[in-house]
Amino acid sequence: MSEEEQAQGPEGQADDQDRKAAPGKKRVLAIAAIALLVVAAVAFWYVNFKVPHDAAVKAFDEVTVGLSQRNQELDDAVASLQGVVDSGNQPLDESTQDAARSAIQSASAAKVEAPQMPSDTEQIKAAAEEVSSLRDYASPLESLRTAQKSLENSIAQMKLVTNPSGDSVVQRLTGLANVTGAEAVSEDNDPNGMLGKAGSYTATVYFSSDLVDQSKVYPSTGYTPIVAAGTDGGGAVEVYATAEDAQKRNDYLAAFDGSILASGSHKVVGTCVVRTSNFLTASNQQALEATVIDGLTKLD
Fold it and tell me: Residue 47's Cα: distance from chain center in Å?
């Protein structure tokens, strides 16, 4: 121990040590104060910025995921209907194809893409609320499904009247209102002798009707009764290989409309020509024609 320290005594030495330790304590206190400020700042940032921002991001993600799922459902429905439209299959009612295209166009216009997420918390909240407020696709989805069902049904109906066999036509006419019998021609039972010839009918089914006064009908001789009575006895369904052949036949019959050679009503349905007797009134022709067409195109 130095003479100076001995001269100070114990109390002096303690004061001296306190003076030497004071700067260190101040530094510790300063560091502690800074640390507390940092912790307080971090806590303030976390509570007032981080938590709200994360909540906004979570809400945005949830609504945009939901929108993406709805968009996928809409895209799938559009693709499904588009596939039917592009199949090349001809519908019986062409308006169903137009309605399908219109439904696709409307659904595509109704689709809303998910926006990019902004960086600002308030903007994220606003974007999430905007997406959340969007309507669902219930209406366009229903329109797409309805259009697809109608188009598919019409395509199926067209297949029923695209070069059907004589037997299938007989089966469909049997039991219809005001149709009392039906019979398909054969090569040996064909008054016109045109069955199966180029450009002519591949089948013809004559049918009788109780709407016709059969006493006015003069049947051909040498054939079975319904075939012998021909179209006059009620009507006929002439079947052709193509719609073009059916239309040519219909145009030929139309040339005699309104003349003494008129043979009754006639209408192209698929590749068939549906005919009704000239002995029927116009209203009965229309009613019987509609009944026959409904029978030919009825889906199971």
Answer: 49
199 — alpha (psi -120 to 50), left (phi > 0) or beta? Answer: left
Measured CA to CA, the distance from residue 170 to residue 112 in angstroms comes to 53
* Surface-to-core class of residue 110, CB atoms within 10 Å of its CB (0-12 exposed, 13-18 middle, 19+ buried): middle
Token duo for residue 72:
């996928």
Q: Which helix (H) or strand (E) holds 76?
A: helix 51-85
Does 178 have pLDDT greater than 60?
yes
pLDDT, one tens digit per residue, over 83-101 is 999 999 999 999 999 999 9
Q: What is the mean pLDDT of the chain?
A: 90
* pLDDT interval class at 10 (50, 70, 90): low
pLDDT of residue 134: 78
pLDDT at position 281 is 97
Question: Of 214 and 20, which is predicted with more confidence?
Answer: 214
Contact 179, 208 (CB under 8 A): yes
Which tokens hold the place of 259? 């003349």
The size of the chain, in residues, is: 300
Of the candidates 210, 271, 208, the one whose C-alpha atom is nearest the C-alpha of residue 244 is 271
Determine the Cα angle at 259 with ends 258 and 265, to 5°.
Answer: 50
Average pLDDT over residues 162-166: 98
Q: Which amino acid is at 79?
A: A
Which candidate, 120, 124, 121, 122, places its Cα nearest to that of 132? 124
- Where do runs of H (alpha helix) occur along the chain? 3-45, 51-85, 95-110, 121-132, 138-160, 166-173, 225-229, 243-254, 282-297
